[in-house]
Amino acid sequence: MSTTSTVVDRAVGCLLGGALGDALGSPVEFRQDADIRAEYGDAGITEPPPRALLGDSTQMTLFTGEGYLNAWATGNSGGPWRPVEATAAAYRRWLTTQQEDKPRLGATGLLAEAELYANRSPGLTSLRALQEEQLGTPERPRNSSKGCGGVDRSAPVGFAPTAEMSYTLGCQFGALTHGGTGGWASAGAMALLVHLLAVKGRRLPEAVDQAAGRVLREDAETAEALAEASTLARLGAGVGHIERLGQGWIGPEAVAIGAYCALALPKPAQFADALRLAANHSGHSDSTAALTGSLLGARHGTAVLPRPWLNRLELADVIERVGHDLGASCTGEKFSERRYLALA
């Protein structure tokens, strides 16, 4: 088990690392590898733009964190512990930011952050699902999507008290919008990976093997993709290996690509190179780079984050605050719970 200060630092590193990956990959999302290198050079895109804007996965990651912390603070103050309901409400608040131009008078929490009222090409599955009256569960799915929109927002759940709770809540949060087994099981696997790295202090190969074993009970596709990521990482870093895993449009591929890039370039000094590897391929570059950044941030903490990149990152202070509070909730450290009790 990691120390309190280490877990808090890794929680901040996890969320900021994911945001940096998202910002790096966003400009080349939907682009083919050859087109990326034709525009940016043989190395592809190598750093976020001068204004490193949050992508939709980071936006929803923040609301995942806020929803979970709302449930945690409510339960800690004597109220009911309803993390799935609280996170569903948080996702509907995120939907408000996609439908309105600016915060309403009296808005609190993330709804008060004007920069979040920006459309960053969110997935249609999430948009459509959140407009429905009833959201999904693993047992009662509302659609058959196994897109990566569930997994790329699931990192905050890794700071639940136990590994099994992280996995279970990750699956449940993913299933709110993505009903295909791969869509929600991959989200559970990602949450479990974050918990094992940040809270339990596992090394990356061990964490990936354990997550693959756990998710096998629900989804062989995600388990096999993670196992393949481990195998390919032992062969070294290369875009060709990513192509064998897929393009990252579906959850099992996305989490496998994120795990592969983190495994192939696992050292603290390789953080930026791992994100570059995850972004420069023909696929869902922002999500795969975000997942890579989240995993390496959860493993190593904030020390690995490139300071010049952080200095240009949109809402870095908000991301840091949510990350800190997630880590504090996991370890019992005091934080401002009140900000999560009255959200409107």
TrEMBL record:
Residues 133-152 are annotated as: Disordered. Signal peptide: none annotated. The keyword Magnesium applies. It holds the Pfam family ADP_ribosyl_GH. Its cofactor is Mg(2+). Mg(2+) binds at residues 56, 286-287. One of its GO terms (molecular function) is hydrolase activity. Keywords: Hydrolase, Magnesium, Metal-binding. Coiled coil: none annotated. It comes from the Bacteria. Binds 2 magnesium ions per subunit. Belongs to the ADP-ribosylglycohydrolase family. PANTHER family: ADP-RIBOSYLGLYCOHYDROLASE, ADP-RIBOSYLHYDROLASE ARH3. This is ADP-ribosylglycohydrolase. It comes from Halopolyspora algeriensis.
